Amino acid sequence: MSAKVLISTAYLPPVEYFSLIRNVDEVWVEREENYLKQTYRNRCYLLSANGTQALTIPVYLGSIHKTALKNIRIDYSKRWQQVHLRAMSTSYMASPFFEFYIEEIEKTILKNHEFLIDLNTELTQVILKILGIKTSIAYTSTFIPIGTIDYDFRYKITPKQQSDFMFKEYTQVFNLSSGFISGLSILDLLFNMGPDSFSYL
């Protein structure tokens, strides 16, 4: 594994995102790219009684088709915070560690950050603190062209394609009925595995 990694910003991203962070010494998060729809940048996936559930943060894209990610503002005209927190509660209230972690996550989501990247950054820091990961994280100041570095994972962790990450199964709230589901938000691992989450990564 490279000593460093370049990744996208992400909203409560999947387990593999944090596995990458854990296994390198230096992390760079892209903030200069043009915003991409239908990615982990503003969505995550939970496991509900009805299967996988996508939660998406509504954003303003403005009149310009290509908007820099660092300038993407969150749209609070829609009650997405209440929807997301209710979904988390419904999906994971019965999990063993839900009550230990939900308060700080809820507090962060309810802060009304103006920019998507600021919300993602603070949530990522909350998760890293819970996991006990102290990897150095910095943010890009210029866009690094695709294919110019070998530690570029910005477009490899995406809900649009199958991941190469080797998932180990763990007990999930609804896995008795659906079987193990991979590609879920880090919240699924935290709420189900608690302090053992770090070892899983």
How would you describe this protein?
The protein has one domain. 32% of the residues lie in helices and 15% in strands. It is α/β, with parallel strands linked by helices. Helix 2 runs antiparallel to helix 3 and helix 3 (98-109) runs antiparallel to helix 4. The two termini are 14 Å apart. The strands form three sheets. A three-stranded parallel beta sheet has the order 1-2-7, covered by helices on one side. Strands 3-4 form a two-stranded antiparallel sheet.
Number of DSSP-assigned strands: 7
Query: Helix amount, in percent?
Result: 25-40%
| SSE string, helices as H and strands as E | EHEEEEEHHHEHHH
Can you tell me the overall shape?
globular
Global mean pLDDT = 91
Low-pLDDT ranges: none
> What's the arrangement of strands in the largest beta sheet?
1-2-7
Query: For the CA atoms, what is the radius of gyration?
Result: 16 Å
Supply the helix-strand structural class. Answer: alpha/beta
The domain tally reads: 1
Tally of individual helices? 7
Strand portion, in percent? Answer: 5-15%
Largest sheet: 3 strands, parallel
Ends: how far apart? 14 Å
